[in-house]
Amino acid sequence: MKEGERKEERERNKNKEGEKGEEGREGEERRKKQGKKREGGREGRKRRKEGGERKKRRRGKKGSKKERRKMEGRKERKKKGGRKIEKEGRGKRRKKGKKEKEKYGRRKERKKKKGGREKDTKRREGEREGRKKDKEKKEKGSNEGRKEKEEVREGQRKEGRKDDSARLPPLTPAPPSRADFNPLCRRAFTRFFCPACKTLRSSRCKPRIAEAPPKGGAQESPGRACAFAHAPACLLPDRSPGERERMCALPRTGLGEGRRRLILGMKEWWIQVGLLMLPLLAVYLHIPPPKLSPALRSWRSSGSFFTYKSQNVFFRDSPGAVGSSDIVVLLHGFPTSSYDWYKIWEALTQRFHRVIALDFVGFGFSDKPRPHAYSIFEQASIVEALLRHLGLLNQRVNLLSHDYGDTVAQELLYRYEHNKTGCIPINSLCLSNGGIFPEVHYPRFIQKILKDGALLSPILTRLMNYFFFAKSLAEVFGPYTQPSEAELWDMWTALRTNDGNLVADSLLQYINQRKQHRDRWVGALRSTSVPLHLIYGPLDPVNPHPEFLRLYKQVLPLSTVTVLDDHISHYPQLEDPQGFLNAYLNFINSF
How many CB atoms lie within 10 A of CB 147? Predict the structure, then answer.
């Protein structure tokens, strides 16, 4: 038995050794195959390295990449025999590459991955659609519930029942988003928001209205809505944005909340200032004209008035030298009056038999009607009416004019030259610093605004004051011949008499009339045989030197000219009265 068992064990061991041998052989074969693969991989690596070294060598050579590729392609074609062989070789390589990829299953793996991604995206889209549907169902259900509750409450109100908050739960509207609230309406919102019950205020919230609102503001916790709530339009979520902005008193802007509050504060501040300024403005517009100075009062008392077409016109007529029969009529400028001649008045009375000056309508102490169409033609007719009133219509007179008066003198000269009925017989004409040529006349900036300002002109005339008037008038005086404060005040007083400041814009239409009737008035100066003279202050900014003087001598070569000192400006009779008087008397004595 023992020997038999031993034999069996030996046979078993032999079988095991045989099996092990077979397994060893198979393992050796596998190892050989793996070694071959490794050797193939090593060879491939060596080839790649060699190819990389070749590329590096090629890059090191001179010439661009395109040139190198062309040269390499030509060499290969020469070796293989043309392009066809090269293309065939490329096609074979591509086929080999596809077979290898199919062997290893790379393409299949990619397809599997793509299919998985598509399934994931479809699954996510389905989940989103499901969520949307759930939300829509919830919203529909809540809206239906609200409608039912509202219908029940409306029925209770009709039957006269009381609204019991314990029996019926309060409405719970969906909390509005920030887009549903206008930050500027925070005050309006807190006015309707009950901080105690956190509802919009209604009839049952009356005892709680006095309580302070929460610090966070109504926007942060809008709470529930009371049954009888009346919220401002901008706070109702069911309103469209257009309706909210239309019904809200404070529209939405692109500014931040802090800036909006600042704007609200500024608006309130400006409203308060405006309310305070209204009475002050009313008082300012009704300030009476200043009192006359003693000099101005004596000037007025020495004159008198005559009526021209229901208008009272101030004039002064002083008798002079006994042995002379000459009469001189003085015509003032804009915006002053006959008081401009006060510095040379006494000297003129010693030379002339009668010295006459007047305030044109709209100036000085004469009437200043408004609304009224002021014109140069009307002022010339007033001068004729004055001489007719004094009984001097048939006597020859000497005209001495300045600025605005120069244009009136031109119209009188035109009438005299054309033998118009009622014209004044003119013995001589002396002009001084007037804009007789529109092309070289430069009115001040304020004059341009007043004459062409339309709706702005009446406002500016009402806002005119002494300081503005004094500054603008001082600009047309020379730097060393500025008027004194007393003189400026007298001029301002004469202007303010009878509200003359309110008709300044109407009077300034004479500038446009000069342009319109240039040929008529300049032609009268050209064609006249009356002795003509010009006294000129060269520093005048309105009729500047040398443009004005050059044109005057060119157009009127027969006229004589006296140019005063270089520092004399637009008002020569006030700036240099002695020089002005000497120039005029020399002219009168020359013929």
Answer: 10
Cis bond upstream, residue 546 (ω within 30): yes
With H, G, I as helix, E, B as strand and everything else as coil, classify residue 569.
Answer: coil
Q: What contacts 590, CB < 8 A, 6 or more positions away?
A: 531, 560
> What does the block give as tokens for 501?
């400041």
- For 138, 140, 142, 143, the CA distances from 146, given in Å and listed in that order, are 12, 10, 6, 5
Closest CA to 383 of 362, 363, 359, 366: 359
**What is the pairing mode between strands 193-194 and 532-536?**
unpaired
Write out the two tokens for 492: 């301002």
Element (H, E) at 560: strand 560-563
Radius of gyration over alpha carbons of the chain, in Å? Answer: 55
- Tell me the pLDDT of the chain averaged across its residues: 76
The CA-to-CA distance between both ends of the chain, in Å, stands at 186
> Which residues on neighbouring strands pair with residue 220, listed in sequence order?
none
| pLDDT digit string, tens, across residues 231-288 | 444 444 445 555 544 444 444 444 455 555 555 555 566 676 766 766 666 655 667 7
The pLDDT tens digits for 153-173 are 777 666 654 444 444 444 444
Q: How far apart are CA 10 and CA 181, in angstroms?
A: 100
Q: What is the pLDDT of residues 452-499, one digit of tens each?
A: 877 788 888 888 889 989 999 999 999 999 999 999 999 999 999 998
C-alpha 36/C-alpha 590 separation (Å) is 140
Q: In what order do the strands lie in the sheet with 193-194?
A: 193-194, 199-200, 224-225
- For residue 117, the SS3 value is helix
Place of tokens 């709209």: 362
Q: Which two tokens stand for residue 66?
A: 């395109």
**What is the full DSSP assignment across 509-536?**
THHHHHHHTHHHHHHHHHH--S-EEEEE
Question: How many other β-carbons are positioned within 10 Å of the β-carbon of residue 457?
Answer: 17
Residue in 511, 457, 467 with CA at minimum distance from that of residue 489:
467
> In the numeric block, which tokens belong to residue 380?
């010339």
How many Cβ atoms sit within 10 Å of the Cβ of residue 310?
7
Locate all alpha helices (DSSP H) within 160-256, ordered by sequence.
Answer: 186-192, 241-247
Contact 344, 577 (CB under 8 A): yes
| Burial class of residue 194, CB neighbours in 10 A (0-12, 13-18, 19+) | buried
